[in-house]
Each structure stands twice: as C-alpha cells, then as structure tokens.
Amino acid sequence: MENRDILVSGGGIAGATLAYWLRRYGFRPTVVERAPAPRTGGHSVDVRGTARQVIERMGLVEQVLDARIRARGMAFIDETGKPVARLDNDVFGPSGGPAAEWALLRTDLARILHGAIRGDVEYVFGDAITEVRQDEDGVTVAFEKGESRRFDLLVGADGVHSAVRRLTFGPEERYLRDLGSYLALFSVDSEVELDGWQLMYTMPGGPGRSGRTAALRPTADPRKALAGFFFRAPGLTFDPRDVTAQKRIVARRFEDAGWEVPGVLAQIRDASDFYFDRVEQVHLESWSTGRTALLGDAAYCASPMSGIGTSLALVGAYLLAGELAGADGDHRVAHRAYERGMREFVDHAQEFARTSGDGGLMPDSPRRMWLRNQQVRILPHLPRRLVGRGLERIADTVVLDAYAGLAPHPTIDS
After folding, report:
1. Could you tell me the pTM of the whole model?
2. Scanning 49, 99, 208, 210, which has the fewest C-beta atoms within 10 Å of its C-beta?
3. Spatial separation of the C-alpha atoms in residues 7 and 143, rounded to whole Å
4. Which residues pair with 288 in a beta bridge?
5. 305 with 279: CB under 8 angstroms?
6. Contact yes or no for 273/326 (Cβ under 8 A)
7. Cα 326 → chain centroid
8. Other C-beta atoms within 10 Å of 84: how many?
C-alpha cells in the first residue's frame, strides 16, 4: 500500500473518525491537536441520517446512546417563558427535527471517538502546524513546538479557520461566505425546567435594531443548560483571540432582554467553554491540492446553525479513509472519489443552511415573528411529506459503500 503515514490536523470529530478508519485499513495516522488534552465541556451536536450508520459500523452506538441528550424539540416562548409555538421532533422524524434523536455534547462524541483509537493511533496534543512543504514524494510539516516531520499525506480537519487550508490553499478570506449573523454558545447553571425542550426567546427587530434570539438547550445534566445567542450585526468586527471582548459584545447586544437572559448573562464572564463566531460557510472548488486534503468544516462548513455539520464530518471521514484504502493509498484517485461521493451532500446541506438555517431566529419585525409562529403552529396538522425541514432527506444523501474486501486492522475491532 502506498502513502501509509498520514498526518491529520485536528483531533475533533472529523479527525478522530478519519484516524479510526485509516488505522483500521492499515494506514499509520498521526493526529496533531492544538488543545493540550481532549476537550471538556462543549456544545451539543446532532448525528443524523447516514452518519448514524458510520457510528454503527464503528461499534459505538451503545456509547453514543448512553451520552445522548433526550431532546423533544424546539419551543418558541414569550418574555414570561410561556410557549407560543413548538417544533416537535415527532413531526419531523428522527433525523429531520430541530434536535436530532441522536443529540449529545460535541466533546462527549469526541471523547467516545478518541477512546475508540486511544493506544492505536499516535496523538500529539498541545501543538499545531506552522508550515507545509509538499513535493512529489511527501509532505514536510513544521510545528509550533515539536521538530519538523515527514509524512506521505496530510489532512486538514482543523475547523472553519483551518491552518492547513490557509497554508496550502491560501488566505481564508477566499473561501469563507458570510451568512450575515453571529452565534454565541456557553454552558450555564440553570434551574429552568426544560423537560427536553430547547427554549427560544425571540425579540423581533425594528427601526435601528435587528431581530435576536436567546436560547436554552437541555444537556445530559438537568442542573445545566447550553445558552445560545443569535443576532445580526452588519459591519461588526472583532478580534478572534480576545474572548473577553467577545463576551462584552454579546452582553451589550442582549442587555435589555427579558426572560432568563439577565441571569444567563451574569454567568458569561466565567464561562470556560464560551464560543463566539460569525456564521459562515466554507466553499472550495476542490478539497485537495497535491498530497493535502481537507475534511469537515475545514472543507465544507455548512454553518454552525445548520444542524448537519457533525454528520458531514462523520460521513466525509468514512468516505475519505475508505477511498484511500480502496485505491491502495493512491491519493490522486482517492481524493477525486472522496469529492465525488461528498459533493451532492455538501451542496444540499449548504443550500439548506442558507435558506432555512436560521429557523426564523432573527425576524426583522413583529409581523415577521408572528408569521413564523403561525407557520410553526400549523406544521403538526400538515401531511408528513409536506412538513420536513429538508434535513431528513439531506442527511440520507450518501449511500455508504461497505468497502468490501478491505481487511480491518487486527488491533481494532468494530
């Protein structure tokens, strides 16, 4: 087999899944992760459609179900916390609702995946790639801390702001598409009885003010919740390294909000898992150049509000590893096959995020919010074929190849 030594940048869901399948097919993956250890805390993710088959083929269903958050759906509420409209998961099916049947914390899923390869795959924590030099025979990679190393192939699974993409494809501004809104997430202590519902408190826009939504989503711990803040801010600039300033931006945007927002914002300063970013997509004509390929958000982020990014990562990793194995390590053949297998899925997911991804969370007037609520209320009374948000169909776009005849690595049992 050619090209057996493969460096994977990013130890999250995409990177860990890829490393699992590469190792199973007899490659020698190395994972480099900027964090000093597997991340803790974190935000919830959904595993939908074909991605569930990837988890099944890895033998991890029981662990995923044990970590699952029991999600019933999304409820839009008024300032007093009274529901005014509901999106019940039962209306959409297990893969199409606002929260999938397989919903869990991102870091729980990453922990499960890491556990499946721990001891079989080399992990380099607390380091990052700073330089990439490709030639006909391999890739030489320089690191922030460790010595330079030589690999046969490189895969960037290092997120929307991928260093590998920047170093091999060029500045990220070429590939990011701004969807015009911002998202903040962090964990909070909460006494609100969520009962499996994601509560969405929307404040409509008006003259000089854009629509906004504050949310609480249940976690596996009933004493805690995931707080979310969604808003538009044309022309907003921020330093991605200054988390304190980002927290101030969110606090100012919601300082006049009612419901549970004041109590939630009181916890933002000490939030250790705070996440804030512009809602963006990643678009590239090709996901590979030379001996380097991109995977997950680094290649085709649909947006953090799409509800399908984790499924894209899981399915993409399965396909890339399988195509490399099927091509006996020939990256030129494998990279083309990987792109053919994923492109339709990615295109549909990104289109959905552009047209429906905000779920009416930032209406520009009270009338727009009223119309959203009426549309939500009527959904349970429509035929199932007319109700789907599109995610259930999109999540099943790819039919997984079994990659029959590719012998599993003897130290990893599915």
Report:
1. 0.90
2. 208
3. 12
4. 293
5. yes
6. no
7. 27
8. 16
Q: Cβ distance 382 to 298 under 8 Å? A: no
CA angle 232, 295, 304 (to 5 degrees): 20
List pLDDT tens digits, range 132-190. 999 999 999 999 999 999 999 999 999 999 999 999 999 999 999 999 899 999 999 99
Q: At what angle do helices 309-326 and 50-57 cross, to 10 degrees?
A: 60
Q: Are 34 and 11 in contact (CB under 8 A)?
A: no
d(CA 9, CA 355): 31
Q: Interhelix angle for 331-356 vs 309-326, to 10°? A: 170
What secondary structure, in 3-state letters, does the chain show?
CCCCEEEEECCCHHHHHHHHHHHHCCCEEEEEECCCCCCCCCCEEEECCHHHHHHHHCCCHHHHHHCCCCCCEEEEECCCCCEEEEEEHHHHCCCCCCCCCEEEEHHHHHHHHHHHHECCEEEEECCCEEEEEECCCCEEEEECCCCCEEECEEEECCCCCCHHHHHHHCCHHHCEEEEEEEEEEEEEECCCCCCCEEEEEEECCECCECCEEEEEEECCCCCEEEEEEEECCCCCCCCCCCHHHHHHHHHHHCCCCCCCHHHHHCCCCCCCCCEEEEEEEECCCCCEECCEEECCHHHHCCCCCCCCHHHHHHHHHHHHHHHHHHCCCCHHHHHHHHHHHHHHHHHHHHHHHHHHCCCCCCCCCHHHHHHHHHHHHHHHHCCHHHHCCCHHHHHCCCCCCCCCCCCCCCCCCC
Q: Which residues of 365-391 are buried (b: 16+ CB within 10 A; e: fewer)?
A: eeebbeebbeebeebeeeeeeebbbbb
Cβ neighbour number for residue 251 with a 10 Å cutoff = 16
The tokens for 217 are 């989503």
Give the Cα separation of 180 and 169 in Å (integer).
24
Positions of the chain with pLDDT under 50: 95-96, 409-414
Which tokens go with 247?
């927290």
Query: From CA 25, how far away is CA 376, in angstroms rounded?
Result: 46
Question: What are the residues whose beta carbons fall under 8 Å from the beta carbon of 177, sequence distance 6 or more?
Answer: 280, 281, 282, 283
Cβ contact 313:11 at 8 Å: no
For 323-359, the pLDDT digits (tens) are: 999 999 999 999 999 999 999 999 999 998 888 767 6
At what angle are helices 13-24 and 106-117 packed, to 10 degrees?
20
